Each structure stands twice: as C-alpha cells, then as structure tokens.
Structure of Zn-dependent hydrolase:
Amino acid sequence: SIDSTRLLGRIAELGAIGRDAEGRLVRLAASDSEKLGRDRFVSWLEDAGLEVAVDRIGNIFGIWNGTGGGEKPVMIGSHIDTVINAGIYDGCYGVLAGLEVIQTLKSEGLEPRRPIVVAAFTDEEGVRYAPDMMGSLVYSGGLDVTAALKTVGTDGTVLGDELARIGYAGSRAPGFMTPHAYVELHIEQGPVLEREGVPLGAVENLQGISWQKVTIDGDANHAGTTPISMRRDAGYAAARVITFLRDRAKASNTPTVATVGCIAFEPNAINVIPSRATFTVDLRDPDEDRLKQEETALAAFLELLSAEEGVGVSVERLARFEPVKFDQAIVRQIEAAARDRGLPCKRMTSGAGHDAQMIARIAPGAMIFVPSRGGISHNPKEFTADTELVAGANILLDVICGLATG
Amino acid sequence: SIDSTRLLGRIAELGAIGRDAEGRLVRLAASDSEKLGRDRFVSWLEDAGLEVAVDRIGNIFGIWNGTGGGEKPVMIGSHIDTVINAGIYDGCYGVLAGLEVIQTLKSEGLEPRRPIVVAAFTDEEGVRYAPDMMGSLVYSGGLDVTAALKTVGTDGTVLGDELARIGYAGSRAPGFMTPHAYVELHIEQGPVLEREGVPLGAVENLQGISWQKVTIDGDANHAGTTPISMRRDAGYAAARVITFLRDRAKASNTPTVATVGCIAFEPNAINVIPSRATFTVDLRDPDEDRLKQEETALAAFLELLSAEEGVGVSVERLARFEPVKFDQAIVRQIEAAARDRGLPCKRMTSGAGHDAQMIARIAPGAMIFVPSRGGISHNPKEFTADTELVAGANILLDVICGLATG
Ligand SMILES: NC(=O)NCCC(=O)O
Ligand SMILES: NC(=O)NCCC(=O)O
C-alpha cells in the first residue's frame, strides 16, 4: 500500500502554492503561479530519483525506467493547472498519486517489465487557453504543437511565449513515448458516487464536449431615450440565449448540460444599451448524436434571434471532443482491484473532460474516480475524505502494478 | 445671431480631445482625458474675458458680470464628461453654445441687467461615479459635497481624489450663485423630433430615473459534472432578470424603458458555473407612480427568483430621481423664440437625465432640444446637422437675452 502521509502531505503542500492576494487558488496554465507548482512537482520527481522530461507543449514527465529496456511505458497522468478559485484535488490528486505509486513500487523493490511514467499535462482546464486538455491533445497527435503554441489566451497572452517565460518550453517531441496503457485517478467532481455511497468509480466512458464563443452585435444607444421597439440590444439577446440553453436542458429528459460561464458587454456602461455581448457556451452530452442535436438547436436559435432582435451573431468554436469509450480490459482490472481490497466500485461515465480522453487516442486507458463531497468541484469547497483519497491511490497502485508487470 | 463658425469649430475641437488608442471618445468624469477637455474649455472662457470659478465638486463656471451688480445670474449649463465611446454633441453642445451666447451678447455691446453664467457640471453621465448629474445635484443641495467627494467609481477610484489629481477640486461652495433662471440646450438623444420633422423641442418635463446594482450569489461548480437540477447558477438567474425586465417593458403599453448596461460574472471561466453575477438596472418612466410600480415588480421578481433558483440576491441603489416638471413660463419663452425665427417647435418630455433637472430644484428652468439623427446617442454615430445646431443656439441666445434683460 502507498504511503498515505506522504501523499496527503504533498496534496496539501501543492494546494498552498499559487494563491492570490485574496487567498484563492488560481494556478492558470503557464502562469507565474503555475510555474511555482511545476517547480515543486519537478523537485519531488528528482527526489524520487526519476528522470525528468519536458516536451515542447510543456508536459512534464517523471520516468522510472525500472528494468524495462525498450518496453513501452505504463503511464499515469493528470494535470496541476487549476481554474480560478479552485479546489486542491482536481488534477493534483492524480498526478501526486501517480508519483506515490512509483515511489511505493520502487521502495518495495519491484522490478517491473515496463517503465512507469507519471505525467502532468499542460493546460487541462482550458480556462486560460482553449481547448481544454491541450497538453494531452497535442501529446496524442490531435493538435499540431506549433499551432497549439500560438494559442491566444483570455488575457491576450500566447501559450508558447508563456511556457518559454516560465521555463517550461521543453525540447522533447510531444508523443515521444507511446504508452502501453494509461490510467488516470481523479476526483469525480460530480454527485454520483456520494449519492450512491460507493467509494470508487471505474470510468468506462466520458461525455462529449462542445465549447463555443458567441458574439452578438447590436447598437449602442441611450438607455433613457431609446424606445424598446427601436433597440438592438446585444445584452438582452445574450440573456435570451442563456435562458434558452438552460431551459431547454432542464426540460429535456437527457443528461445534457449547458453552461454560460463567461460574459462581457461593451461598452459596459450603466446608461448605454450594450452594442456587443460576448459569452461562452459549454454543451456536454455522453451521446454524440444528442450533442450534435443540441449544437444544431443552438445554431437555429441564434438564427431566429438574429432575425427577431436585428442583431449580428457570430460563433467561434473553442473546443469539440466526441464522447470517448475507455478500454474495457483496464476497466475490468480496476473493478478487480477494488474487489480484491473489498471495496464497492461502480462503472460510470465522466461528466468532466480529462487527459485520459486524449491519451485514449494512442493507448488503451481508463480512469478511477473517488467521491466528491456534495458533488462540488471548480470551487474551493471541493472535498474528498483522506480515507477515500488513500483508497483510490491504492487501487491505482494495484492496477499499475498489474499493467507494468503483466 | 451667434457665430456659427466659432461654435461648430469648438464642438469639433472639443470632440477630438480625450480619444483613446482605438480613437474612441472616452472622457469619463475627472479622468486624465476629461482634464484635457476641461483645460481647453477654461482657456476659451478666459479668452472670452469671463471670470472663471470652480467649486468643490469640480463644476466650472464662466461668469460675465455685465452690468448686473448684485442681481442673480441667468445660468446656461450642461457637461463635458462623456460615456465610453461617445458622440461629440452630448453635453458639449450645450456648454459651448452657452459660451457662444455670452460672447455674442458681449460683442454686440449688450448691457444685461443680470450676470450671465455658463456652467460645465461634473459627472453628468454617471458612468464612472453614480449617481448621474452628480455635479448639478450637489450644486442644488440634493447631495452633500463631502459625501459626494467620497463616491467610489466603477474603477475603484474616489471622486474627490481624482478631482484633486486633475486640478479641479475648486474652493467655491457648491450653490454659491443662485440662478435667476436656468436654460440648457441639448441634443434630444431620442427619435421624436426627427420622426416628426420638427427642428426644435421645448422640453417641459423629464422622466424619473431609477438605477440599481443587483448582485446574485449562487454556487461555483463544474460545468460538465453538475446536473441542471443541482445548480445554483448566478449567471442564469441574471439572464432571467434581464429578459424579465425587457419583456415586461415591451409588453406594457407605457413609455417605461428598462436597460441592463453592465454585467460581470465570477469567476468568469468557461467551465465553471458562475458563483456570482452583478449587473446594473436602469429603469425610467415619466410617471412617478408607474416608475414605483416597475421597481416593485422588479423587487418581487428578484424574490421569486431567489426562491426558484436558490440564489442570494442583494440590491444597491445607485440613483433615484423623480420626474421633473420644468418652468412653464420659460417653456413658453422658448416656443415664442422659435415662432419669432419662423421655426416649428414641439413641447416634449426628456428621456435622458440632464443637469437642468437638478438645477430645477433651486431655480426656474427649462430645456431646448435639437434633433438626433436616427435617435442615436451614447454612440459615436450620434449626429445633428450644423444648421440644426446653429438654430438651437440662436433660440438659446434669444431666450437668454430675454431672461437677462427682462
Ligand atoms: N477535470 C476537469 O475539470 N477538466 C477540465 C475540463 C473540463 O471538463 O471542463
Ligand atoms: N443626457 C445624458 O445622456 N445624461 C446622462 C444621464 C442619463 O440620462 O443616463
């Protein structure tokens, strides 16, 4: 079993790095505060005697070659970037558990047939640079690294410049190791495991993600003098889209979710009708056909809105990932490991996007989930009990041990 | 008649001052760019041989004492601050026409019984510091100057500090001259005069203004994993308020207007359900009872919303002004002046707030409107033809001449 004190200590320590003036955890991809987290992680990799490699998109790898000359490695991964005002578990838990598994196997004198690698992928959250899972997407060949490095962030910065600035523009070619298998341990970030009282999830699929940025153009005019009938109010039109998406998702009897997380009005003055509104749309569904239907319904609504409100509408795609099915054999290995430790385990779908969904393009993979209290994530209240964290890490240990030696 | 070349030249010159990097006119109250506009205006007052006075709230006065020893002055006023991405006429036209009227009367050798004063009031727009018409409100005793100087702006600055910084924290007590009468010339900023083909408006009343800032508190959570039924989405709740206000105003058969001009979400990240939404509400109606009804309807909706969406709602009042009736005698003098120059003139209501509504608390006053092409204002496309601008200024000349000598 893993060293729970070491794992929990590191989770707390990494969770203290990258706090802003108000104490909020804000470790956006390739930022100064994320650099501090990366540096700490790298120091732990070095302390553990692992070979450290960084690729061109800034993914960090801790490699334990073991006895595995020439064999493809077993990879454990996740991310250490965060959203704005984040919790301490999302991503970090999986990365630090991966390191913990390697250190445990090393110290127990295991001589695995295959190298074992722990990876921290760049920009999983996608909050600063879209799409999300950027580092693992590039690693798996889904996006050209040169194009990815040119991505302009929400703050106007360029990803490649920022990686160079913080010292994580590595030299290795993304994809330089093709994994034999990939396993990611993560908090569920949703309510299912807690509601059902099950401590472990064997994640067999992951829903599709559609991210769009919508810009609506109307006319600035005076808030006091302009009759309602003469307005081309971009802000009102945006509000209609927000209520349309949400009311539609609520009325449907499907797991479809729709979220507008970002918004801005121009000129954003109290007595000026907004001339422009920009906002993001995050649509998800485990079923690709249904996700397409939702996108089509939004496009049709935007067309109607443009006619009804006399506004211009333009849409930019920020991310689009189809639903992913994980490797059934690895899912069964996760279930078997839970059974062996006497722990209930539920097959389930991931509501969140994860690096595992990208690496699934190049290697068999699956995920392990542990419960999130109240289903809360992307929030400082994010919480998983220590016993649950430790149980998840031990299942990861067992599965990785099997994959690396089998 | 006034010197149209001088007036139109000054409007163009002042309109070029305070442009940002993108060429937008942004001369927010007490900002660096507004200081440039103030300096130019003061230099024109000095060139015209007027006495310049600045009061504690930064209102600028150009005083022509004439022969009027001890008489109350006739005051002409408006403002030179602007909204974001403004047109060049809103406010400046009235101030520069006031100066033009004084220069014309001076150069024609008139010896008026009363002093004539042109005033540029501070922060009429209210975009940076609420409430709007701050300078004239303080001047007329509606708000204590010490309290007003402590106002915190949308950018976190304090009005008093900013006035001191730009050199316009004057020493005169606001209200140091009580006007005998007050007249303000302004572009209509609405569609009425153009639609009716009338070049002049005699403004007999001005609608009530209610400004509120609404804050909605929900829960940040993950956009992918959180079922719609479990969300407390502050952004969605805000969108419901925006559509409620607008749909209600549209459905009513009243002149009520409702505008949400500013909005912000927190944390404002694409895959995070907004934990907080803040937005402004601008409600106006010429009828005080109806305006109260609209405020009550909004309050009731916010209560319903709080229950339905499980969100917290808090409201801050930014401005509240009852509808104002102007002085009938001056309105009739405006109509008479138009008749004498053979120009059609329409009695009308002002949709916008103006300094005249504040000065009406301490002196009889009224306003003159000229047409706004397409009813457009608070927009760089704001436009009034030169002939219309000149006609308005000549009516102002005639009315002021009558008031100062009569
Ligand atoms: N796990 C996680 O929060 N990923 C971020 C990408 C997303 O699902 O929005
Ligand atoms: N005239 C004008 O635009 N005033 C600004 C205050 C307001 O009516 O919103």
Q: What stands out?
A: Chain A touches chain B through 71 residues (CB under 8 Å). The pocket of N-(aminocarbonyl)-beta-alanine (ligand 1) is lined by residues A 90, 124-126, 132, 189, 352-354; B 222, 224, 271 (CB under 6 Å). Chain A has a mean pLDDT of 97.
